């Protein structure tokens, strides 16, 4: 059944979340090597932006307590999670003291944490920031990157991990 139009003018935030939830997105964990160890956060808003210069974009929530710390460092790594890494996504979404507890990773050539078994990783440096309402739009220059073509990405769709049709077929 199709969602009726909103009626123009004012857009209800819940309706917007429901409608835009029909767009499946990947899930990332953005990491950096801080002064007192690695830090990171789960970020669903990620996209390629430009090939020349090589840029990507992330959109951390303005309420993020981790993004300001990464901004100060100026460099970070975007880790694209694999379909079996839902627990990792949840772990980095929490406001816990040590999100890296029990997490295996290696440093990139730039020294940023690349999480084990991710689909892809993109090492970046901060390029620019823009006002994005309740989020910050962060453009980042790509310094290095890599992928494992044998891994499948973790998807977020309609408020849950995985595609709705896949979940229905498995249940």
UniProtKB/TrEMBL annotation:
Record's keyword annotation contains Oxidoreductase: yes
InterPro entries noted in UniProt: Flavin_Rdtase-like_dom, NADH-dep_flavin_reductase, Split_barrel_FMN-bd
Species this protein is from: Geodermatophilus siccatus
Protein family per UniProt: Belongs to the non-flavoprotein flavin reductase family.
Keywords, sorted A to Z: Oxidoreductase
Molecular function GO labels: FMN binding; riboflavin reductase (NADPH) activity
Gene3D superfamilies: Electron Transport, Fmn-binding Protein, Chain A
Full protein name: NADH-FMN oxidoreductase RutF, flavin reductase (DIM6/NTAB) family
Keyword Nucleus attached: no
TM regions (residue ranges): none
Flavin reductase like domain ranges (all copies): 20-163
Entry-linked Pfam families: Flavin_Reduct (PF01613)
